[in-house]
Amino acid sequence: MEKFEKLTGVAAPLPMVNVDTDMIIPKQFLKTIKRSGLGVNLFDEMRYDDDGKEKPDFVLNRPAYRNAEILVAGENFGCGSSREHAPWAIKDFGIRCVIAPSFADIFFNNCFKNGILPITLPQSQVDMLMKDAEKGANAKMTVDLEAQTIATSDGEVIAFDVDPFRKHCLLEGLDDIALTLEKGAAIDRFEKTAETRRPWV
Amino acid sequence: MTAPKTLYDKIWDAHLVDEAEDGTCLLYIDRHLVHEVTSPQAFEGLRMAGRTVRAPEKTIAVPDHNVPTTADRLDGIKNEESRIQVEALDRNASDFGINYYPVSDIRQGIVHIVGPEQGWTLPGMTVVCGDSHTATHGAFGALAHGIGTSEVEHVLATQTLIQQKSKNMKVEITGQLRPGVTAKDITLSVIGATGTAGGTGHVIEYCGEAIRSLSMEGRMTVCNMAIEGGARAGLIAPDEKTYQYVKGRPHAPKGAQWEAALAWWKTLYSDDDAHWDKVVTIRGEDIAPVVTWGTSPEDVLPIDGVVPAPEDFAGGKVEAAKRALDYMGLTPGTKLSDIAIDTVFIGSCTNGRIEDLRAAAQILKGKKIKEGMRAMVVPGSGLVRAQAEEEGLAQIFIDAGFEWRLAGCSMCLAMNPDQLSPGERCAATSNRNFEGRQGRGGRTHLMSPAMAAAAAVTGHLTDVREMM
To answer: What is the structure's pLDDT at A1?
Structure first.
């Protein structure tokens, strides 16, 4: 997995609540058997019209945000379907950090498996970052995972919480499966005990 | 003396493999359900790392999302990408030796209907699947939830999941439901009351007299949409109904193992003085037949209500309501029962079981759907379909003017050819009314099977109680 340490980039404002994963990547793009190449279809139905032409008003189509690396959004971001194609599309577009007042559970988990940092902040702080993001391409934010801080374009610094294990995995780019396989003996022991306790499983 | 526990606590404790100092846990997974859309990248990951499936006998795969539901599907899937995905699952199931129900098998169907039907899902188990509606299996008192593809790969390789414990939330539905009110109305009303983020960070246990009175099919409908309320999982404690449903199914325990299992299952309930982080109580008598008007499952109102105005809401929901009304083409103040529809979809992992088809058929018996209406029934599995044919339900649907389809996810997410065109408006028994969910520009109103059947007849959203 790609490491996440420190990121300085343009933040795109998406002030919508309940952005669902169908919106992030519609179903017709789930037919792929690969993880890559989904960035062009990120937010497809909001980003393109029926003829496939870009809608100029959509934030990621505006010149200032075409290379955004951070997304600031409303509450309950990533709700709905468990499709990991949503974080794959976000990452493939070039966004590595999403900031919102709250996230849906499965999407939140999926981000960490893909080198994306989702940050939960109180609504008032998200509102402040949203205003900062609205300034456009000259207003870059810096997200520092080690220090657990976000610095705005004005130099204001906001602290954020992150689960220590997930932070460690992101900073080091660790593969979950390899980590778990190191606990193979514990899994063996569990299976042995379970065989006598719940033999019908 | 041990501390009082919830049902979730008990299942969690019974599956804990390892707990790190920071609270990160490794949880053992008893059943891993797999479908064609969220698994190809996971199997590819295994191959690239030279890993195997740790417990193929606990892994069950079935294609459902992509498969066409028309009779010609056995001649091959026409859409090339869909065909490639289904063929990839055929190959992966064979290469890794996992249990498999291919498209040609009568037991094929929606993964969350096949699991319980075949007795794979049992009380007290941990069940995962790369699909958010895995919550369905919670109806059996199993801890069941959706996972992403990276986690699918993790479970395939290790039969465990890295987890952090959720909080406990109790949703109690007291008393009895009034006539015409179903499990779907319960689950939508709960989401309407708590919002789509109301359960975030929690596992919900549904309890109370109205829940106890539901059949297993109804309980599956309730748990199915726990995810739409933001919860990781929904649970209902097992009881006699659960045991009766499970007994005799192909993969249910038998003989002495059945007795041993039953003894453990009977300990699976929340202790009287267990701690709840959140409690919601709704009177069963207060629940009406409901429909959704907007583009989030929380946009729920009783059928005798009117389309709301953005000013009825606060915060970010004001803009969301404006956008939803625009997308849905609705004007505030319009009676919900005046909204005309052109499409009806009965099916999905929410409402594609035999009881759902019975409820719809009861309304449709001896009636015709409105002229020009496109209506389809997509049974949740080949076995549900066969049973409905045996009971004469299929003929009722056909006589009424419905298309009688083969099993699959179909128009719930419209990955197969069953889709809405822009502007089409559908009465659907599925679980999501998101923008574009049933097809780009398509408009979805969620409701119970009986309500969808009533709408098919009248051509507009209808209070089913007027037809009973």
So the answer is: 87
Three-state DSSP class for residue A10: strand
Distance, in Å, from the CA atom of A80 to the CA atom of B131, rounded to the nearest integer, reads: 10
Per the prediction, chain A carries an average pLDDT of 96
Any chain A CB within 8 A of the CB of B36? no
* Mode of pairing for the β-strands spanning B343-347 and B160-163: unpaired
User: What are the chain B neighbours of A164 within 8 Å (beta carbons)?
Assistant: 22
**3-state secondary structure (DSSP) of residue A138:** coil
pLDDT tier at B22, thresholds 50, 70, 90 = confident
The pLDDT value given to residue A137: 83
Contact call for B148 and A200, based on CB within 8 A? no
Q: Is B417 an interface residue toward A (CB < 8 Å)? A: no
**B residues 338-377 closer than 8 Å to A (CB):** none
What's the CATH class of domain A6-197? alpha beta
Buried/exposed code over B271-283 (b: 16+ C-beta within 10 A; e: otherwise): eeebeeeeebebe
Which of B240, B301, B237 shows the shortest CA–CA distance to B446? B301
Contact predicate B452/B346, CB 8 Å: yes
Looking at residue B101, the DSSP 8-state letter turns out to be -
Domain ranges of chain A: 6-197
pLDDT in tens, B248-289: 999 999 999 999 999 999 999 999 999 999 999 999 999 999
Distance, CA of B84 to CA of B79 (rounded, Å):
9
Task: From chain A, pick out residues whose CB is under 8 angstroms from the CB of B230.
Answer: 76, 79, 104-105
Chains A and B: how many Cβ contacts under 8 Å? 185
Contact with chain B for residue A124, Cβ under 8 A: no
- CA dihedral of residues A30, A3, B46, B105 (deg, nearest 10): -20
Residues B369 and B419: their CA atoms lie apart, in Å, by 19
Q: What is the mean predicted confidence (pLDDT) over A146-161?
A: 96
Q: CA nearest B379: which of B390, B366, B368, B370?
A: B390
Answer for the pair B438, B419: CB distance below 8 angstroms, yes or no.
Answer: yes
The SS3 assignment for A159 reads: strand
